[in-house]
Amino acid sequence: MNTRHQRRKWRAACRRLIKRGNLYHYEVQHDPWCGIYEGHPCHCDPVRVLRDDSGRALARIEGAGFYDPMEMVTFGAPERKVKA
Ligand SMILES: [Zn+2]
Fold this sequence. Notes:
Elements: H1 3-17, E1 24-29, E2 47-52, E3 57-61, H2 71-75
Antiparallel strand pairs: 1-2, 2-3
This protein binds zinc ion (ZN).
């Protein structure tokens, strides 16, 4: 599985699982050597876990590539139709 495929799979899982009005935890498990611990952008390939408000894992994915702090802003949100 390549990164792009995994990212798409993760996005689809988040869209399916995240419901308006509920609380979720988005856990990003970086490698110990990742730049994020030294004030740099992520350059590892973290495991991502979506948990419900009691901590139960709803989805988990590996191989989705670098973590971008903005990714959940769009990953969790349904596609919006923009009126012209
Ligand atoms: Zn990282």
